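[agent] plan:
  1. take the single chain provided in the ticket
  2. run structure prediction with default settings
  3. attach structure tokens to the ticket
  4. add a short note for the reviewer (M.T.)
[agent] executing step 1
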Amino acid sequence: MSDLELPNNALQDFSAWAQAKQARIELILDHHLPSADLAPHNLHSAMRYSVLCGGKRVRALLCYAASELCETDFKIADAAASAVELIHAYSLVHDDMPCMDDDDLRRGKPSCHKQYDDATALLVGDALQSLAFELLSQTSLCAEASQQISMLSILAKASGSAGMAGGQAIDLAAVGKPLTQTELETMHQLKTGALIQAAAMLGAISGSQEQIIAMQTYAMNIGLAFQVVDDILDVEADSSTLGKTAGKDANSNKPTYVSILGLDQAKNHAKQLYENAIMALSPFGNKAQRLRELADFITRRSF
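[agent] step 2 finished; step 3 output follows
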């Protein structure tokens, strides 16, 4: 990405660091997404609508923070962060469709299928998924083919039936049914946690065995914490704050951490998951400071 003017990433303050990385990934995504001037115009317009100018880019931030700890080459980190964000955007487009969660609002604006139509939204998801793997398969990305194959495998597993897609299938089947906390966590480890873990593992692809093991523990806990906080916000925040329809889970009779544990216990559970994630980083001292700050950002966030 040397042909792009990207913000300086050598910033000390977490807020400034996060804003710089968010601006960086926005520029990179804008660069890689097809122009709306290219045919098929409607599809390319909808792809850009669904990806750009929205969201906190938590997964990209996680990828960058892990890459800084593990000294992963910036070109690899950029491609990995972009790929994860594209997969995440595709999942949101499909999740919002009437045959899935049927939501009209996403990131404070009409969902893709509302702004365009169902058929376009379906194709947007397909095209974004393909673009994600295209970016990770660039021939000049990695010096070693084995590293690049490993990255492709990590993202593929996190996106498929043993990851995000499988978690969504379990989620749809669970509507109106009682789940135990263990069953709920299994579902969210796949639906939400798998892609968050993939973001961390892709960023850490150049790390030592010790760093990679620690990153797995960190990401597993922070991925679950992310979902617990989502469930809490669904109860406590309004639609304008969330950028999506508030109270949707309760109205759809979907099992959540709040419905199973109660609000106070759900907050305690998020705190425990946060503490587990922080503990996993203890061997790395100040080198893991961005990851600690990101864990705090995830568990204290509001949209």
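[agent] step 4 note for reviewer: The first helix runs from residue 14 to 32.
[agent] ticket updated
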